[in-house]
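4.2 Preliminary Data

To establish feasibility before requesting continued support, the project team ran the inverse folding procedure on a target of 359 residues. The structure was first converted into the token representation described in Section 3, and no sequence information of any kind was made available to the design step. The complete token record follows.
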């Protein structure tokens, strides 16, 4: 299945489905200007899929250099950015060369930032291997690394030349990671597509068991939704903010817990339930729909609350979320499933009450 991201001359195709990785070399031939690529993967993904992808690219006529990085968020650093830039120089990449990011969001963001900066920009191919990367991070052009002071503080917008999301590789993805990616799928349903949301309700067991047709459907719909939002507001000056539904609290939970206790998607799961409750309380979302959101998040195997965390701690972390104006977080809230608005201020007392389970 193909989804096209419409961004004028920076438009690009997303190939989704079982076997998409086998099609990658041919797609690269069509889309890439030159014949040199640097294939970047973390060591886990490299061991599983690196040789196959490298051989495929070589078979299609590319000179392939490879770089392997350690798995995990700590690799999304200035240090690894520098090392990969040196790998690109050692491999003699030129302006017509490309970087192929094979992996989850960590490799996609890191290698994407190298592609944005090396020689002031070379082509980028995203080959996402986690559900989160397929439905979210590989699409939209945000790249970057973390600083000790905070996540994603240094980066660039750099759209890929192509994305290939192979549902077969999700068979080896740990179940916890698969569930975490499902949080972003559910979010896409809530913000733009009641049909996608209902599909998640109906088909969660098939999705979690790795059913390729069900996964292809939700990945394609998620990419279409993200592509449409990004197409309308590439640099987040307005509407792109709706992609942050559930993320104001999600980011705060990640920060308050030192980015260790919860995966991003797990923190977002809690954030989706919180935003749904807020929406029911102040924005007219029918309480039954807030209940459906909680139920589907739970069915995905994601947490729906963080009882171990104190509100004061979470609220403090919210105040420093870089997407809010100083001290006053703004929320994306739902009027109904499939329709949201951004930039909504919520009274302090309501936030605390809803955190404690009120609706
Ligand atoms: N750029 C964006 O718009 C955007 C959006 C959302 C999240 N992100 C970023 O994405 C990152 C998280 O990405 P992630 O959740 O994909 O995590 P990740 O890249 O760390 O991957 C998770 C783990 O799964 C392993 N893995 C990956 N694919 C596998 C496979 N097919 N089989 C077996 N193991 C596999 C990896 O080695 C890693 O240990 C964060 O840094 C976040 O900030 C970026």
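Position-by-position output of the design step:
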């Amino acid at each position: 299945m193909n989804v096209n991201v419409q961004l004028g001359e920076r438009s690009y195709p997303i190939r989704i489905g079982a076997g998409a990785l086998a099609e990658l070399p041919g797609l690269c031939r069509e889309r890439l200007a030159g014949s040199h690529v640097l294939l970047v993967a973390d060591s886990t993904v490299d061991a599983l899929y690196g040789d196959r992808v490298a051989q495929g690219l070589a078979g299609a006529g590319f000179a392939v250099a490879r770089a392997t990085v350690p798995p995990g968020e700590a690799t999304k650093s200035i240090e690894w950015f520098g090392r990969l830039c040196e790998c690109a120089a050692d491999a003699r990449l030129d302006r017509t060369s490309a970087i192929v990011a094979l992996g989850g969001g960590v490799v996609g963001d890191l290698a994407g930032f190298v592609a944005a900066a090396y020689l002031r920009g070379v082509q980028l191919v995203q080959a996402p291997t986690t559900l989160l990367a397929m439905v979210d991070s590989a699409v939209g052009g945000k790249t970057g690394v973390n600083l000790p002071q905070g996540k994603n503080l240094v980066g660039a917008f750099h759209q890929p030349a192509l994305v290939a999301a192979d549902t077969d590789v999700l068979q080896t993805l740990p179940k916890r990671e698969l569930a975490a990616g499902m949080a972003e799928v559910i979010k896409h349903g809530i913000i733009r597509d009641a049909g996608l949301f209902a599909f998640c309700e109906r088909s969660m067991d098939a999705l979690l068991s790795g059913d390729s047709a069900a996964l292809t459907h939700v990945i394609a719909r998620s990419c279409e939704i993200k592509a449409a939002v990004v197409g309308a507001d590439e640099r987040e000056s307005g509407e792109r903010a709706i992609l942050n539904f559930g993320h104001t609290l999600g980011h705060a939970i990640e920060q308050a817990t030192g980015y260790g206790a919860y995966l991003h998607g797990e923190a977002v799961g809690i954030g989706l339930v919180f935003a749904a409750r807020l929406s029911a309380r102040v924005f007219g979302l029918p309480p039954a729909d807030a209940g459906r959101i909680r139920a589907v998040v739970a069915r995905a195997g994601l947490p729906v609350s963080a009882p171990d965390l104190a509100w004061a701690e979470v609220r403090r972390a919210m105040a420093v979320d870089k997407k809010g104006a100083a001290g006053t977080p703004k929320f994306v809230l739902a009027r109904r499933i499939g329709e949201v608005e951004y930039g909504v201020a919520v009274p302090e007392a309501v936030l605390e009450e809803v955190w404690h389970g009120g609706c």
